[in-house]
């Protein structure tokens, strides 16, 4: 499975591509950051993020895009920028028919380090180790994007089994051959 991870942000949007399957060594195919100037108009920043993500999608052709789920912070401005960048990533993937998965920061940290409270240095160190890199990706947004991709690759088989079990346990209440009733006017 080839996953493009996106750590959304207006100033630095981390992007990383990882390929592999759960239980086997993973391979990093690319890592980087889409940057926008803080003093630029918001619309132009979002266009720059879109162009950057589109270029990564063109180059790496992922099967899935994993995006960090936006969570509430004290700084509303930061949350809004993160949400806007996140929406751009989801739009770019959806426009191409690529499935999108959202993971919370604590899910990603727990998957990669074993602790949902790990700090950025711990995440970077584990990403470096798991992908057999010479040094942690810089900046931390790039390492976080790789961690998102790793998290999804590792969690996808279990999530798929859960979804299948849930669907089997809740059969449709309307039979496929149910007659259609016309409502009198």
Automatic annotation (TrEMBL):
Catalytic activity from the UniProt record: Endonucleolytic cleavage at a junction such as a reciprocal single-stranded crossover between two homologous DNA duplexes (Holliday junction)
Pfam families: RuvC
Subcellular location: Cytoplasm
Binding of Mg(2+) 1, residues: 7, 141
InterPro entries listed in its UniProt record: RNaseH-like_sf, RNaseH_sf, X-over_junc_endoDNase_Mg_BS, X-over_junc_endoDNase_RuvC
Oligomer status and interactors: Homodimer which binds Holliday junction (HJ) DNA. The HJ becomes 2-fold symmetrical on binding to RuvC with unstacked arms; it has a different conformation from HJ DNA in complex with RuvA. In the full resolvosome a probable DNA-RuvA(4)-RuvB(12)-RuvC(2) complex forms which resolves the HJ.
Protein's UniProt name: Crossover junction endodeoxyribonuclease RuvC
Organism: Streptomyces liangshanensis
Gene from which the chain derives: ruvC
């Amino acid at each position: 499975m080839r996953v493009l991870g996106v750590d959304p942000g207006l100033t630095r949007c981390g992007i990383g591509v990882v390929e592999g399957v759960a239980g086997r060594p993973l391979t990093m195919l690319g890592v980087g950051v889409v940057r926008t100037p803080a003093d630029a108009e918001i619309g132009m920043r979002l266009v720059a993020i879109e162009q950057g993500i589109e270029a990564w999608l063109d180059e790496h052709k992922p099967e899935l895009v994993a995006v960090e789920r936006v969570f509430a912070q004290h700084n509303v401005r930061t949350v809004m920028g993160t949400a806007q960048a996140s929406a751009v990533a989801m739009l770019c993937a959806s426009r191409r028919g690529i499935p999108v998965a959202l993971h919370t920061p604590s899910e990603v940290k727990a998957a990669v380090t074993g602790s949902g409270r790990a700090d950025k240095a711990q995440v970077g160190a584990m990403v470096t180790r798991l992908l057999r890199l010479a040094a942690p990706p810089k900046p931390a947004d790039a390492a976080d994007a790789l961690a998102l991709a790793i998290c999804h690759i590792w969690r996808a088989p279990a999530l798929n089994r859960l979804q299948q079990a849930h669907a089997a346990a809740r059969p449709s209440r309307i039979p496929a051959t149910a007659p259609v009733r016309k409502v009198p006017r």
